[in-house]
Amino acid sequence: GIQVEQSPPDLILQEGANSTLRCNFSDSVNNLQWFHQNPWGQLINLFYIPSGTKQNGRLSATTVATERYSLLYISSSQTTDSGVYFCAVDTGNQFYFGTGTSLTVIP
Amino acid sequence: GAGVSQTPSNKVTEKGKYVELRCDPISGHTALYWYRQSLGQGPEFLIYFQGTGAADDSGLPNDRFFAVRPEGSVSTLKIQRTERGDSAVYLCASSLFSSYNSPLHFGNGTRLTVT
């Protein structure tokens, strides 16, 4: 099956810093979504982004489908950004989730 | 409610027992997915419904697991003869049409513990 790798696996940031999270996938996909799982386990959809660039406040994402990767940018990080960030790729009927990036933002 | 609702939020059961986990998707969403998440791992696909039918059940680990969605709305995941390895958080998600062309919305999950 398709492989979805995320980097870095863990990240610690000082509040206010910027970061870039990466998602590489091994095959062509129909769609890609980014999720944030907060410390209470809730999964929140951040971006639905099969290609191109989208922005939502301090977050933005870019997917280059032809090169099989996506990037999630977090600017001016806040402690509430802490949690695990997952990318998930759609190959037809199901989404395959990546291994996640665990982000800790310290005040 | 406005979001995906899962009940119960926690379930503790003894090895060998039968359990049912319920998912109420967002109203009007035709696609429904079940995932399982173990500690430190990403969600693992179990089954996908489009309307009342299971479009893809390739993620169900074995025949102890079964899911239904009889009226195209509420879904129930059923686990027979539970084993300790079944302990995980079971997540349900829905989308307007399919994950191909609409965002996925997750519930808060059911934490299943098999003792």
Describe this structure in words.
The complex is a heterodimer of chains A (107) and B (115). Chain A is mostly beta strands and 107 residues long. Chain A has strands at residues 4-7, 10-14, 19-25, 31-37, 43-48, 52-56, 59-64, 69-74, 83-90, 95-97, 101-106. The termini of chain A are far apart. The relative contact order of chain A is 0.34. By secondary structure, chain B is an all-beta fold. In chain B, the strands form 2 sheets. In chain B, strands 2, 4, 5, 6, 9, 10 and 11 form a 7-stranded mixed sheet that branches. In chain B, strands 1-3-8-7 form a 4-stranded antiparallel sheet, with no helix packed on it.
What keywords describe this structure?
heterodimer; A: 107 residues; mainly beta; 6-stranded mixed sheet; 5-stranded antiparallel sheet; 11 strands; 59% strand; globular; B: 115 residues; 7-stranded mixed sheet; 4-stranded antiparallel sheet
What is shown here, in short?
Chain A is 0% helix and 59% strand. Chain A contains no helices and 11 strands. In chain A, strand 6 (52-56) and strand 7 form a beta hairpin.
Distance between the amino and carboxyl termini of chain B: 33 Å
Largest beta-sheet details of chain A: 6 strands, mixed
Major sheet size, sense and barrel closure of chain B: 7 strands, mixed
Rg calculated over all Cα atoms of chain A: 13 Å
How many helices of chain B in DSSP terms? 0
Low-confidence stretches of chain A are: none
Helical content band of chain B = under 10%
Structural class of chain B: mainly beta
Helix fraction of chain A? under 10%
Number of strands of chain B: 11
Kindly report the average pLDDT value of chain B: 94
- Secondary structure category of chain A: mainly beta
